[in-house]
Structures are given as structure tokens and as C-alpha cells.
Amino acid sequence: MSYSVRGYAAHSPTGRLGLFDFERRSARPDDVVIDILFCGVCHSDVHNVRNDWGNARYPMVPGHEIVGRVLAVGDEVTRFAVGDLVGVGCLVDACRHCRPCGKGWEQYCENGATYTYNHADPVDGTRTYGGYSEKVVVRESFVLKVPETLDAAAAAPLLCAGITTWSPLRHWGAGPGRSVAIVGLGHMGLKLAKALGAEVTLFSRSPGKEADARRLGADHVVISTDPAQMAAVAGRFDLIIDTVPYQHDVNPYVPTLAAGGTIVMVGYLGPLENFDTGPLVFSRKALAGSLIGGIAETQQMLDFCGEHGISCDVELIRIQDINEAYERLLKADVKYRFVIDMASLKQEAAA
Description:
This protein is an alpha/beta fold and 351 residues long.
């Protein structure tokens, strides 16, 4: 039995998102059917909707930071029961037998991971539609347990913003005795790095953010446009996580790395103009990239957040305000993530 679902969709790269009725695929024996309570709004939603990456398929229902309650489970499902609080992130399937999948790195699946929206189901080819909607049907192995101790709305962006910083923090060994810096609006990077025990610094382009940064976990704030402040932290950082989602000059941050340190790009996908590799060679520094995280490490991150009471700073919005939220997001006019209260969609559907 398929599910008739209402959501919000984009029909072109320039149009506004609006109401859209569609069919979810029938649930299979290993599927979980989820009633969506909240869905985060990610910068990549805007990129996808506006076809910035050139692979948009319309109509498109965005949303890959999903938190909800289990409505039904297939006969083969063992890890979830009706009523459980669960999450779905950027991935809903992968081949599960290639080398990256074998390491728990489904996001790097050599045969192509299946994304929560703007993709095709690998079994029947049906379109995947995201979390700006009432319900979603997802294979059990790609559904995550959300700790009941967390606020459900504030937990939603953990499924992308959280894991995007958690994965490189863990992979590059952030913890006691390590010095970590965050570039950009990566507030979850500050919170997680601090909770892991690292010394944490925020690079900011403008003054006035110190109090907020310290509240989020920063031990230090460095104004990246101030040459004196940048010179004072030369050779300090073991790891820099760059969350900036647009093209920018990375060169100024390289001197602040310790020998053997790494800058990890998690926000910007594209060429870096005039990047100087010389300082990398002479001090065994590295420029690397990281994409979200695998299912096991996403669950690890959620469990860690539940144990430490960590969640995102969010502004709750109605689905009817999503187009205005996109414009505000592009202006960085949000602290720090928008989350859609999907009750607003159900109220509209009932009207």
C-alpha cells in the first residue's frame, strides 16, 4: 500500500516552494514508516532547489534533517517499534557491500549512495522525496534512534549539521590535548569539539560574536581579518574545520596550522582559486574534505549528544514561511538553524 502524502515542493530553480501532493512508495518488510514532526532547513536544500549543483530534478521535496515518530514497521524490522522517536539524515540507502560501506562510510558508497531527496530508489526507481512532508518511508538500516532526552526540534539539524562536524572531529582525533578551530557558522562544531575535550577557537570575520561563541563552547575567538590576531595564533591548531558554504580564500588559515595539522572543508564544494600548496609541503600540513557521516557514526553522535545534552540552536518556523526562510538563510540571518514545525503542514492539510 502506497501512502498519499502532502508536502512542499519546488517545481523550478526560480519558483517558490508550494503545496504538493504525491505518493510515497509502499512499505517493504524492512521499512519503517515515520510521521514527520520536524525537519531542519539546510543550506544544501537551497543549493539543490536552485540547481546550483546542476543535478536538480523537479518536482523536488527537500529536507534531510528529519525527526519523527514511527507509525508502522515491516515484518522484518527488529530495531524499532511504533511510537519510537527516530531520525533520518541525508542517506536512505547504499549498496552496503563496497569497501567504504564495509567501513561504515555509506556516504562514500562506490556504487552510489541514495540520498533522501532528489534521487531514485535503488529497488524500484521511484523518486525520493524529503522531509518537507507529512510522512517518509525508509529502510530500517538507515533510520536512527533519537534520544528521548533531546528536544525533538533542536535534534533535527544534528542529522546534517551535527554529523558534518562530528565525523571530521572524530576522524582527525579531536579531544583532550588537541587544539581545534572552526571557520564559519559551524556552531555544532564548537559544541561538539568542546564536549570532546579539545581546546576550541572560532575564526570570525567580524567582532561582536565573542559572547555567543563562548556560550557555544569556544575558548578563544580570533578575528580572521585582523593580521595581528592571525599572527598570534600561527602554528597553533591541530585541526581546522571550515564550514563556509561558498568560495573563499583558505590561504590565510594555513599558517595557523601546527606542523602535521589539517584543514577540513565541509561546507564549500568547488574549486579553490589561487590556493598555495607550498606551506603544506614544508610543514606536512594537509587540506582535506569530509562529507556528512556514516550511519553508525551518526548514531554514535546522537547518543553522545543525548548523554551530554547537546542539541542545535534553532528558530522554529512554519512550512508556509519556507521561501522567506531561504532568503534569510542566504543572508545568514538565523541563529543558527531553521527547523520546520511540520504541524503547520498538517494544519494546512486539514483546512
